[in-house]
Amino acid sequence: QHQPFFNRLYKAVAWKLVSAGGFGPNLDHFEILRSCVESCKQTLTCVFVPLKDIAGLPTGRTQRDGHVCEIRCQAVYLGTGYGRDESAAKAMASKEALKVFQGRKVTVKICRRRYRGRDVEDLMLLDEQPRSQGFPPAISYPF
Fold first, then answer.
1. d(Cα 133, Cα 120) in Å, to the nearest integer?
2. Tens-place pLDDT, residues 61-119
3. Which InterPro entries match (predicted)?
4. C-beta of residue 82 within 8 angstroms of C-beta of residue 96
5. Does the model's pTM come out above 0.85?
6. Which residues, other chains included, contact 79 with Cβ-Cβ below 8 Å and sequence gap of 6+?
7. Nearest-angstrom CA–CA distance, 33 and 138
8. Residue 91: which of 71, 107, 108 has the closest Cα?
9. Interior CA angle at 81 toward 21 and 76, to 5°?
């Protein structure tokens, strides 16, 4: 039931990126994503977690400061980002989410992700690119 909405959102993002001169580092990625989602009569959900509160990070990771942001729309996972503060994390998550819209189409699929040490099923927005690595762990309970 989510696919028709994300097809409309895909078109809205495509038009917005064309009018902004294309995908690039100087865009306000969150603002583009937010305005497109709102034009489709929905809202984004951003969940923030301090990096130090996330279990299961690689043991060699020395960076413990900062925040992680997970962005969803209609409970569908769009992207995750890390930053020194919530604003930077949200910007990175938005950039990752917009990357999915760069392909020829987007698809909502049920995928397996880790959440607090166990595998859960999660609705994710994906492009047609094959994934060589796993997905980042969920930081909010998917359903």
1. 17
2. 556 789 999 999 999 999 999 999 999 999 999 999 999 999 889 999 999 888 888 88
3. DSRM_CARF/NKRF (IPR058828)
4. no
5. yes
6. 70, 71, 93, 94, 95, 96, 97, 98, 99, 100
7. 20
8. 71
9. 85
Domains detected in the chain:
3-54+64-102 (3.30.160.20)
Identify which has the larger pLDDT, 56 or 44. 44
Secondary-structure breakdown of the chain: helix, strand, coil percentages, each rounded to the nearest 5: 30, 30, 40
Burial of 93 (0-12, 13-18, 19+ CB in 10 A): buried
Which amino acid is it at 19?
S
Using CA atoms, how far residue 113 sits from 39, 57, 108, 127, in Å, is 30, 14, 15, 17
Identify whether the C-beta of residue 81 lies closer than 8 Å to the C-beta of residue 91. yes
